[in-house]
Amino acid sequence: MPNVCSQLLSGGTCENPSCTYRHNVSTCDICSLVFGSPNDYTAHIATKQHVAKARGESGTLLFCSPCQKHVSGTKNWAQHVAAARHKAEAKLKGLPADADPEEVESVPGRTLCSTCNIHIHNNDWERHQSAAKHLARQRFVSFRTALDEAERDKNGLSIVGDFDFGIVDGPAAKSGKTIRPTIKNLTPSSKISIVSMTLASDKGSKTQSPFSVVHDPNRTIGYNATYSFAVTLRQNHNGRAEDRLEILFEDLQLRKRFIIARILRVIVGNRSDHETLRPVAPYKPRKRTARQPETDVVEGIHPPSLKAVPYVVALPKALIPANLASALSTGSTKSIVDKIRSLFLPSVLDSDTYARHFKTLVWSEEFRMERDLEHYDIPNAKLTVQNYYHLLDVPGLAEKRPSVLVGDRILVQKSGGANPGHWFEGGVHFVRKEEVGLRFHGSFRASPADRFNVRFKLNRHPLRRQHLALNTVYSEDRVLFPLPLHVPTTSYPTQARARLGVFNPLIATNAPQLQAVVSIVKRPPGSVPFVIFGPPGTGKTVTMVEAIRQLLAADPHARILACAPSNSAADLIATRLMSLNTDELFRFYAPSRNREQVPLDLREYTYEKQAADYTYEKQNAEKRHFSVPPLARMKRFRVVVLTCVSASVVSGIGMPRGHYTHIFFDEAGQATEAESMIAIKTMADTKTNIVLSGDPKQLGPIIRSAVARELGLETSYIERLMQREIYDEKKGYGASVVKLVKNFRSHAAILKFPNERFYGGELQPCGDSSIINAYLNSPLLPNKAFPIVFHAIAGKDEREAASPSFFNRDEASQVKEYITKLRADRRFRITDNDIGVITPYHAQCLKIRNVLRAVADEVKVGSVEEFQGQERRVIIISAVRSSREFVEYDLRHTLGFVANPRRFNVAVTRAQALLIVVGDPDVLALDPLWRAFLNYVYLHGGWTGGDISWDPARPVDEAGGYDGAVRAQAEEDMNAFTRRMEELTIAGAEAEAEEDGANVDRPWQDVE
Question: How far apart, in whole angstroms, are the C-alpha atoms of residue 547 and residue 570?
Answer without folding.
Answer: 16
